[in-house]
Amino acid sequence: MANIGESLIVIGLAIVVSRVLVRLLGRRVAQQFRRPSLTRTALRGIRVGVFIFALLAILNIYGLQLGDIALSVTVFTAVVGVVLAPILGSLISGVFLLADQPFEIGDMIELVDTGQQGFVEDITLRHTKMFTLDNTFLVIPNGEIRQRDVVNYSAEDSRTRLSLDVLVTYESDIAAARSLIEAAAREVDNVIAGGPDIRVGAARYPASPTVYINEFADHGVLLTLRYWVTEPYKLLAARSKVQTNVWRRLEDANVEIAYPHSHLYFDDTSGEMNVSLNDGLSGLNGVDRTHAASGDSPVPPRQDPDDLADE
């Protein structure tokens, strides 16, 4: 019973000492590493170190020698090494994650293979915790996340550029269309309306919404809008608002959005009906496919079966 009491005292002291050390050293460790993930890992290491010393003290209370402990650990490791291999792999991957810094706690990331987006909640040596934008919680082993493609929307600069393609007809006022589309994007709150150029690597891009003539397509002029948003977790909302504003502005202007359509017209003098088909994406290539239907059609008239029998 005395050994049990002493063991409980050692455990209690270990809990108190670990908490005191974390409080005393927490701020210094944070200032030293300046990264939440490394800070949390270092503080966890302090707690683990305190409890290891406590465990050694408890073993000493029961009269176990360090050599016996080392032999037992060797045998135990040989037996369960295969079982612990995945865990050890995750631990090693966690060390590489903390060293490479592909993302940090609080960053918004996207798992490319699944399309899941969210914020990094915690990074440990074994796994990475993530809250998705759908308010679900993911725990991903570090060995797995290191093998997946991850997009970090918060690295260095959280501003994200989006693109929107708008196809207008050749009869439209292209200059007016470009101005209207740019103005429509500037009206959205999450869109950067202007300011100094945004630097990405060695390149610089205009911060304000800009429309470019992308292509003279077969069925219209393809305009591409490039604009920047400040909040990467609202990309879909920003895109929806921009498209709504573009639609409203172009609807009231001398700009027509290209779409698949057909023209039917009649020639009263000849009695012919002409059908002009514009196929949109596959047609509208500058050539109308015209079909004539009249009494002069090269297709022979249909005969009655009785007349054929008389012949």
TrEMBL record:
It comes from Haloarcula japonica (strain ATCC 49778 / DSM 6131 / JCM 7785 / NBRC 101032 / NCIMB 13157 / TR-1). Gene3D superfamilies: 1.10.287.1260, 2.30.30.60, 3.30.70.100. It is a multi-pass membrane protein. It is found in: Cell membrane. InterPro entries: LSM_dom_sf (IPR010920), MS_channel_C (IPR049278), MscS_archaea/bacteria_type (IPR045275), MscS_beta-dom_sf (IPR023408), MscS_channel_2nd (IPR006685), MscS_channel_C_sf (IPR011066). The chain crosses the membrane at residues 6-25, 46-63, 69-99. Residues 87-154 form the Mechanosensitive ion channel MscS domain. This is Mechanosensitive ion channel. GO terms for molecular function: mechanosensitive monoatomic ion channel activity. Belongs to the MscS (TC 1.A.23) family. Residues 286-311 are annotated as: Disordered. Residues 164-257 form the Mechanosensitive ion channel MscS C-terminal domain. Keywords: Cell membrane, Membrane, Transmembrane, Transmembrane helix.
